[in-house]
Amino acid sequence: MSEDRLILAVNPGGTSTKLGVYRETEEVFAEVVRHTAEELEAFDFTLDQLDFRRQVVERELKSRNYSVDRMAAVVGRGGTFKSLQSGTYRVNEKLLADIRDGSTLQADHPSNLGAPLAYALAEPHGKPSFFVDPVSVDEMIDEARLSGHPLLPRISLSHALNIRMVAYKATEDLGKNLDDTNMVVLHLGSGISVNAICKGRMIDTNNANDGGPFSPQRVGSLPTTGLMKLCCGGEYDPGQLKKMFLKEGGLKAYTGTDHVGEARERARKGDREADLALRAMAYQIIKEAGAMAAALDGEVDCLVITGGVAHDEWMVERISKGVEFMGRVLVFPGECELEALVRGVLRVFDSVEQEKVYS
């Protein structure tokens, strides 16, 4: 192993690349490199950005007098691959071929760059590369897959990396093992994932793009007949509808802002529409948490609130009051995805869990 097991973690986002170097679990440094619209407009497809992102990471490492030669491993965020079990996977040629082919990708998302970026950084230096708990983690029970029509199965795409990380943190607080714990995890970001975890397995989740509560940007579940009329009325084309539902829906559609803090300030000053939209979002989140608790037969050790919206005290307090009858409430604001990537690799290095093989 390299000195004290230094690990490089990379997490590509829509307009940024997050990277960090860790010595074991200790953060040596972490950085968010922002990308301008002009830089990204040069690429027709997300995967075309691979070499650009690699150079960005290498420049940042060089500026801090680090190189991949010193790393024990490089790990990247896992994307919208085909359905996979949770865990830590080594990047292999089969995965890279499937990503290039695109036939197994469930969405065009920046996270799809994570694994090939880790490989592109590591392979020239003879270092191993990994991805951990990808967006496409799918451990749903069979009953959760049926939506109401066979042409429209429910699909498991979620903030699995952060969800499982805070699940580990919650079990530490509880003094239990993840495999012995039932919990409901509420990831509150621009999209919202509410998840039922049964003995370490994510048995159900709302796909943040397809249902569940409305969020700062996304519409969540919609009335079916009204949706039919909207889609078939001819007023909007598919691109406009996608933007309306996934980028300009939810809180933004009702208030004009996707920032919970800004909406709260408006509500405090007497904006009734902002106040109602915030209360309705919290209400829908509470209802979804209740549904996931029911999926666990009511046997809930704790409920975990996480994600960027968890920084808002009003929202956390309102949701906590609505769900506390189901179990103990724990709050881990923000996301800890770089740390989650590193800990996944360390669990494999330390033989806490077995490295999984993508096939």
Give a quick summary of the entry.
This protein is of the alpha/beta class and 359 residues long.
Q: What this model shows, in words?
A:
There is one protein chain. The protein is of the alpha/beta class and 359 residues long. It has helices at residues 37-41, 50-63, 93-101, 114-122, 160-174, 224-232, 238-246, 250-255, 260-268, 272-295, 313-323, 337-349, and strands at 6-12, 16-23, 26-34, 73-77, 88-90, 129-132, 182-188, 192-198, 201-205, 302-307, 328-333. It folds into 2 domains: 3-139 and 337-349, Nucleotidyltransferase, domain 5, CATH 3.30.420; 175-333, ATPase, nucleotide binding domain (Nucleotidyltransferase, domain 5), CATH 3.30.420.40. Helices cover 37% and strands 19% of the residues. The two termini are 27 Å apart. The model has no long low-confidence stretch (mean pLDDT 96).
Task: Describe this protein with a few key phrases.
2 domains, 359 residues, alpha/beta, five-stranded mixed sheet, six-stranded mixed sheet, Nucleotidyltransferase, domain 5, 19% strand
Give the SSE layout.
Elements: E1 6-12, E2 16-23, E3 26-34, H1 37-41, H2 50-63, E4 73-77, E5 88-90, H3 93-101, H4 114-122, E6 129-132, H5 160-174, E7 182-188, E8 192-198, E9 201-205, H6 224-232, H7 238-246, H8 250-255, H9 260-268, H10 272-295, E10 302-307, H11 313-323, E11 328-333, H12 337-349
Parallel strand pairs: 1-4, 4-6, 7-10, 10-11
Antiparallel strand pairs: 1-2, 2-3, 5-6, 7-8, 8-9
Helix pairs in contact: 2-4, 5-12, 9-10, 10-11
